[in-house]
Design brief:
With about 300 residues, the chain is of the alpha+beta class. It has two domains: about 120 residues, Sandwich (Jelly Rolls), CATH 2.60.120; about 130 residues, Alpha-Beta Plaits, CATH 3.30.70. It is built from eight helices and 13 strands. The strands form three sheets. Strands 1, 2, 3, 5, 6, 7 and 8 form a seven-stranded antiparallel beta sheet that branches. A hairpin with a 5-residue loop joins strand 1 and strand 2.
Length: about 300
Amino acid sequence: MSPHQKPVGPIDPGAAYVYLSRNGSSAVFEGGEKFWSLPPEELEKLGRGWLVSEFSCSEDWPNWEMHPEGDEVVYVLEGDVEFLVEEPTGVRAVRVQGRGLVIVPRSAWHTARVHAPSRLLHVTMGAGTRHRPFGAARGTRGYELAQFNLGIVKGPMDAPVMADFVASLDRINAEADQSPGFVWRLTGDAGDAAVRRYLGAEHVVANLSVWQGLDPLRRFVYQSGHLGMLQRRRDWFERLGDAFQVLWWVPKGRRPEVEEALARLGLLRSTGPNPEAFTFRDPYPAPDEGRTASPGGSVTSSRE
């Protein structure tokens, strides 16, 4: 595809992309699908300069991407976008609401969660860009998923209102222990005093467990006998105005304590979902997710 003659008037970066070469010259190309359908070798050649382009996003990016040739500048023109950028110590979340600019370092894997329809202006040196699906390469993970939930029950465990709940506990716990992906759960009365102090209530029930990942836990919660218990939660538990369940990543082999779980729940309640404390509805990837397995690929658009 040949570049357009450079116009004097304003350019719409959503419909026409501006290419800035390393020698200081520029060119304008028809944007959108026509540009990204160019032969891979031509895209790779163009990727050795800077591509200025605008994208509209209404959904989360479906994959991670990485640009090995240079930093990427992403200017949020309007909307609400949260960028997730992998760092050696984990995943950094940077949220932009309204307008703001984010610089993604060279070779850093990154993706975006779109909280509201947004317009983004990208300045990217795309040669060698790589992509991987969100949630890929889980076999290399050095982390497991911790889960904690609590509640105030409507009476002592020997009260009639709690009879069906108590009668089901052993069965549900045994089903959890045998579920694929289950790792560990706290048993006995350990930590109950801390939970009672946290809630300021006498009759509480709490559950702390560790799973291999989000999918095994989700299957147990929503696709097993546990679902029936969940659907009857209002029969046994008082309604809480704040979040009562929190998820977070722990290094493989470590068993979290109740005090840590309460701190994570407090963080979720105070700041909302974030990489350190999140929910089923708004999950975050493990700190090392996919870092050692990066499929190659040509320069393509993940943001159209």
